[in-house]
């Protein structure tokens, strides 16, 4: 049972380069999320997708784009990476419409922009 | 708007001692409340959650938390710390009926367990 899978696990980019972080879940969840985690700041929501075909901005969307490719996959794209985007990125998913509304997280992608 | 305050970014206890991690929240509607744990270089995993019903909730690894509406608190406790409890802990709050992943997270508390 894989849960939420993120690729890659580590990445170093040069300023101005682009990349896409991939996320897939096998729990048939409707909702998916991208967070960034910075020291002492907890998790901040970048974008989320409540269901296939919909995406919405979270708290810190600037500099990012997302695609909900299908129910399983939700990707995060950095078009022109900046050092301020150095962070650990987490993808998560959750079921909706029930009381069992907990989020399931991937292992994270550690991104360094130099 | 919701907010979460975790009191103490670092907590250190001796092995076998009581663990108490504090969380206070603000929410305009009755909330769902969560505690997540993050081990080094891993993602977050759910420890326990309060959605409805009994205000004392038990989670994995011997942790429990009590929802106190009058105090807007959801403190996490464990009677006896184990070395394996060393990790970062996050309190989170979300509105009822909204997606759990749209929770607002606290800044985290790093728990150190001394032998």
Descriptive account of the structure:
The complex is a heterodimer of chains A (114) and B (115). By secondary structure, chain A is mainly beta. Chain A is 0% helix and 49% strand. In chain A, strands 2, 4, 5, 6, 9, 10 and 11 form a 7-stranded mixed sheet that branches. A 4-stranded antiparallel sheet of chain A has the order 1-3-8-7, with no helix packed on it. The N and C termini of chain A lie far apart (36 Å). Chain B has strands at 3-7, 10-14, 19-26, 31-38, 44-50, 56-58, 64-68, 73-78, 87-95, 104-105, 109-114. Chain B has no helices and 11 strands. The model of chain B has no long low-confidence stretch (mean pLDDT 91). The radius of gyration of chain B is 13 Å and the shape is globular. In chain B, the strands form 2 sheets. In chain B, strands 2, 4, 5, 9, 10 and 11 form a 6-stranded mixed sheet that branches. In chain B, strands 1-3-8-7-6 form a 5-stranded antiparallel sheet, with no helix packed on it. Chain A binds chain B through residues 4, 31-33, 40-45, 48, 50, 58, 90, 92-94, 96, 99, 101-108, and chain B through 9, 32, 34, 36, 41-46, 49, 51-52, 90, 94, 99-103, 105-108.
């Amino acid at each position: 049972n894989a849960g939420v899978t993120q690729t890659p696990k580590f990445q170093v980019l040069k300023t101005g380069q682009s990349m896409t972080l991939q996320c897939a879940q096998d729990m048939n969840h409707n909702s998916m999320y991208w967070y960034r985690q910075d020291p002492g700041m907890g998790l901040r929501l970048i974008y989320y997708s409540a269901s296939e075909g919909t995406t919405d901005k979270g708290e810190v969307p600037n500099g990012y784009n997302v695609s909900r490719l299908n129910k399983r996959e939700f990707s995060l794209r950095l078009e022109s990476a900046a050092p301020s985007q150095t962070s650990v990125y987490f993808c998560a998913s959750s079921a909706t419409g029930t009381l069992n509304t907990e989020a399931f997280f991937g292992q994270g992608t550690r991104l360094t922009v130099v | 708007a919701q907010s979460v305050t975790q009191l103490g970014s670092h907590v250190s206890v001796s092995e076998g001692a009581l663990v108490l991690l504090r969380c206070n929240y603000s929410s305009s509607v009755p909330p769902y409340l969560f505690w997540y744990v993050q081990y080094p270089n891993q993602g977050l995993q759910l420890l326990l959650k309060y959605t409805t019903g009994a205000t004392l909730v038990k989670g994995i690894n011997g942790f429990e938390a009590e929802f106190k509406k009058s105090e807007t608190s959801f403190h996490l406790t464990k009677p006896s710390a184990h070395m394996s409890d060393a990790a970062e802990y996050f309190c989170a709050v979300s509105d009822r009926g909204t997606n759990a992943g749209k929770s607002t997270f606290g800044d985290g508390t790093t728990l150190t367990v001394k032998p």
